[in-house]
Amino acid sequence: RKEVEQDPGPFNVPEGATVAFNCTYSNSASQSFFWYRQDCRKEPKLLMSVYSSGNEDGRFTAQLNRASQYISLLIRDSKLSDSATYLCVVNQGSARQLTFGSGTQLTVLP
Amino acid sequence: ETGVTQTPRHLVMGMTNKKSLKCEQHLGHNAMYWYKQSAKKPLELMFVYNFKEQTENNSVPSRFSPECPNSSHLFLHLHTLQPEDSALYLCASSPGSGANVLTFGAGSRLTVL
User: Fold this and answer.
1) What is the pLDDT of residues A46-72, one digit of tens each?
2) The pairing of beta strand B10-13 with beta strand B108-112
3) Contacts from A74-77 at CB under 8 Å and sequence distance 24+?
4) What is the mean pLDDT of residues B48-67?
5) Is B40 in Cβ contact with A95 (below 8 Å)?
6) Cβ separation A8–B99 shorter than 8 A
7) Structure confidence at residue B26 as a pLDDT band (50, 70, 90)
């Protein structure tokens, strides 16, 4: 079983749609969780952290379910500029233990 | 310059060549990292340096040789590489090795012929 597993997609959605990505992780000792965004041929950049109680940043909502070892990212009212690969990242205690998922590719269509 | 800068952005080399990748960070961070990103695969951690001391070598073949002369600079020396080493090599930094969030450079795309 992969340590961090994501649906690779691609997800092709029209502008304005709501889209959700899921991620599961295998290590129950994982402590911190993040979503990174990687544009085509660019470097990964932090999108948002994921907190136990769930958190929202504008159109983006992240949720964590520790019991099921599951993380999600919801994007509402999607924009063309949201097109990217979204990486689920799990931290087991220090940056050298960051484990990345393979990413979910999103294309928002006009 | 700001952030994390990597050079060269693109590199093509033969299996017998020797080349180096360079990374420089202007963020005042103390930890620096090398990651490998192959198509459709997760980022793979290669090396970690904290206060210019290597703290992690993730079973990387010896044909990859890192060097960290100070907390702002990181090199990856390459020699006798294989075609399967072709990938995007990403440098990252963080305030310390215990930090949660990494700032990545734009990467060096390597092709080994």
Assistant:
1) 999 999 999 999 999 999 999 999 999
2) parallel
3) A74/A18, A74/A19, A74/A20, A75/A18, A75/A19, A75/A20, A75/A106, A76/A18, A77/A16, A77/A18
4) 91
5) no
6) no
7) very high
